[in-house]
């Protein structure tokens, strides 16, 4: 019985350590570097969503390009 409790405590301790490291790293990455967004609707056709309203595309939004003012003609810019 003591062996199984020791294993559970060790597993929970390792999980908590990984969780408390991974969550701040993931939040910082999504806030500062890039995030994933889904494009729905006909506003970006034919570049995105060529199938219309029944399909959606997934895009990566690059935060660094906008922060460094490296936006060029033809780039797609997302505003919130």
UniProtKB/TrEMBL annotation:
Task: Give the organism, scientific name.
Answer: Saimiri boliviensis boliviensis
Where found? Membrane
- Any signal peptide, and if so, which residues? none
Under Gene Ontology molecular function, one entry of this record is:
serine-type endopeptidase activity
Presence of keyword NADP: no
Q: Which GO biological process entries does UniProt record here?
A: protein processing involved in protein targeting to mitochondrion; signal peptide processing
One GO term of the cellular component aspect? mitochondrial inner membrane peptidase complex
**What PANTHER family does this protein's entry cite?**
MITOCHONDRIAL INNER MEMBRANE PROTEASE SUBUNIT 2
Question: By its UniProt entry, which SUPFAM superfamilies does this protein fall under?
Answer: LexA/Signal peptidase
Q: Does the keyword Transmembrane apply?
A: yes
Q: What is the name attached to this protein's record?
A: Inner mitochondrial membrane peptidase subunit 2
Q: What broad class describes the main subcellular location of this protein? A: membrane
Keyword tags: Hydrolase, Membrane, Protease, Transmembrane, Transmembrane helix
Task: Name the gene behind this protein.
Answer: IMMP2L
Membrane topology qualifier: Single-pass membrane protein
